[in-house]
Each structure stands twice: as C-alpha cells, then as structure tokens.
Predict the 3D structure of the following.
Amino acid sequence: MSKQVRIKFSLLALVIFVLVGLSIPASTSSQPGQQATTTASSRNAALIAATAEVLKETSEVRQLPVLRQVPSSTQSRVEIERMLIKNLDEETTPAQLHATEVTMKKLGLAPASFRYRELMLRLLTEQVAGYYDPKMREFHLADWIDLDGQKPVMAHELTHALQDQHFDLRRFSHWPRGDSDAELAAHALIEGDATLLMSFYVLRDPLRALAFLRSMGSTGMSSDELDKAPRALRESLLFPYQQGLLWTRRLYGEGGWARVSKAYTELPQSSEQILHPEKYFAKEAPVKLTLPDLTPLLNRRSRKAETRGQRSEVSEQSAVGSEQSAGSTGLMIRSRRQLLTAHRSLPTVAWRRIDTDVNGEWSLYLILDQYLKSPTESRRGAAGWGGDRSAVYEGPKGEVLFVCLSTWDTENDAREFFDAYVKRSGLRYPGVNPTPKSSTTSKIFHTSEGDVIIELRGARVLIVEGSPDRINSNVIAKSLWQER
C-alpha cells in the first residue's frame, strides 16, 4: 500500500494519535463554570509557566539542552480544528488522498463506502487537545482541559520541540514521495523517542499518572472514530507509537539517550528495521526495486480491444447493408467509412498511474492478515522482506490495477510470502479457485474484479491484482518481470 496502505504520513498525521490516544477529547467539562470564571490571560499565563517547567524537566531527562524557549498559548476548539484541517489540506493533496482510498478498497482493506479524507477529518476533530507546531516552533494546548493532568502529554509534545531544536523536524514534514515505508520508520523514531521520554516523565512521580487518568476520566474520553477506522489504517497510525516505543527502548538499552540521538543522523530505513532492531544495527538496507510504467501498455491494449469491437460493428453494419441492397456498393462503403471515422473520434482510453510506493514488511503484514486473521502466520509470511515496489493504476471506467514486485532475503522467505498471498487471495475472493493453468510457482485467479496473478521466481514474488478482462494479464506480468 502506498500510504499505502498506509497512508502516507506527514508529521501532522503522526501527531493525530497523540491527540487521539494520549490526550483528552473535546467535550463538556465536569465543571462547566470553571472556564467562564477563568480568564484567557490567566490560563495563558499558567500555561506559559507550566511549559517552562515541563520543558526544563524534559530537557534534563532527555539530555538535550534547551536552545530556546518554546512559545505557548491556549487555543479554542475552533482554532485547533481550523489549524489541523488547514495543515491536512496543505500537506496532503487530493490526488494522494484519492490514491490511498482507491488502494485500500482494491486490496480489501476498506469497504466500498470508505472515504479517506472524511475519516481523517473526523479523527482530527474528535479529540483535539494540543500540539507542537514545527513550522512556527510553538506549543498550543486546548483551553478547555485540566492543565496539571495534561503534563505528561506536554512532556511528549515538548520532546518534539527539543528534537526540532537539535535535529530539525521540518526536514520530515515533506518526505519525498515513493517511499512511505522509510517515512514510517523515520516517524517511528520521532514518536518512539517522545513516547519513551513521556514514560520516564510519568515514572518520576506516580501522581502524574493518576492526575492524567483522572483528567481523561472526567471528560468521558472516547475514541469512537479511531475504533471504527479500517484496521490497516488504525494500526498504521499506531505503529510509530507502539512499535516506535519498543524500537527506541532497544536503542536506549544499547547506549542511553546518546544512542537515540545518534539515530537522527543514521535514520532507520524501513519498517523491517523497526520491527527487527538487529537489522538496523547490522545496517541491512532495503533493496531498491523499480517497475516499468504500465500506462502506455494498458492504454495500447485497451485501444486494440476497443478497435476490435468497432471492427466487429463495422462488419455487422456492412452485412446489413448487403442484405438491403446487393447493388448499393456506394452506400456500404459510406457506412463503413462513417463508422471508422466515428471510432477515430472516440476519446482516448485513459489509464493512468495514480501511485507508486514501497510497502515494506509492516504493510505487507497488514495486507496478509486482513484475511488470514492469524498474526503468527502473517508475520511469518512478511518476514524476510528485502525490498519491494508497487504501483496502482486507475482505468477510464473506474477499474483499478495493483502490481507489486518484491524481493526476499532467501528463496524460502519468498516461498512463504508467495504461499501466504495465495491463501490470502483465496479468502479475499471467496469461491474463486486458481485456474488449471496454475502451478506451484504461478497462481492465477479469475475474479469479478479482474485477474489476480501471483508468481514466484527464485527470491522474488510478483503480484498483479485486478488485470482487466480485455487486457492479457500474462502480457502485464511479462512486462513487470523486466524490472531493472
């Protein structure tokens, strides 16, 4: 998946989970008169003092000096929502949102009714509480929450401020397109670092945890939108915090905070390195694969199929003309010429590539387990990943073609992924079995959504999912095996 599944995460998107999972939601306070009796200026003054206090302690724990104070203020719900929506629209184009939505639906990771942008907006606005803005280098906290109870979250967000001061977080805000897996790994470092610091901050004084839990409970915290989100999206949002925490803890165990800080100059390169820290320490870099652009092939083949259909129509019209009058040769020629002219005036077939990306071990695990529903089996199928490249194409009638070429550490790893994806395909398209032309290294499924081809060659696996009926899927597969 490109953001696959995943969804290409900007820094903003990764902050969402802090707002959703670690902060209290926007809801009516248990003391409705408190906000009315507290002036904005006094709240801001209290926040400024708390920010300086928490930043100082966070700096000591994280062992990163404060290079400059962090401006802070309280914001209303409307102000925070406006900022979050603005950033989402600025950092994620409609084309990227569309590609993610289409890919998730094609792989069966989201229902046909799924609307990606609408869900993200609901997630953003469901439980806003506060955020650090690396663009403005400012910290903002919602004006309706209990300040003391939210200090652990402040420690998390102010860790981002220290990261920004020492490692420049803005370089992560506009990650180059085409490698979401490496982007996910980088954000696992950022969020894992801040989450580990937050855990240390809370452990320094157990009363902080109690105050935090009391703060959440008093507002009836809910995460309905996150809970209802498609599993692949939900777990991808959680990945930088859950897996990032485990990975950063491993780094900390190797060499304390100095080792964590060193990772900002030696970034993890894949979700595989996050899931298997030993691969990060061994500097096991992913293999870079390329795929040819299938757009010319798809359009050429579609055009030929369309031409055959038009020729058939010409023949039928010619036969009708002959039956009407054996001597009306001129009429028959005119009829044929008119039909061919009409065919030439038809709009050009418009297949287009809407995304190309790296899935990585984590996304391939999610794609498998959506249907295998066996984490152990799915992890085994995705383990041994060495690299991949996928692409998504959209046809003129809404057809969607997903292709993926992957390479594995060993031929046995490739076989395990091949077998797992074959099993996943059988569950994804119930009642559809591999065709008689299938073999132990090549499986073909004819489905209502197009052909699915899964091929194994040595340590590589090719997937073609959604090949249209009018286009020979073997021709597509042959073209893709020409990867360089």
Notes: The chain has a mean pLDDT of 83. The radius of gyration is 27 Å. The beta strands are 72-75, 130-133, 138-142, 352-357, 385-394, 400-408, 442-447, 450-457, 460-467. The longest helix spans residues 231-262.
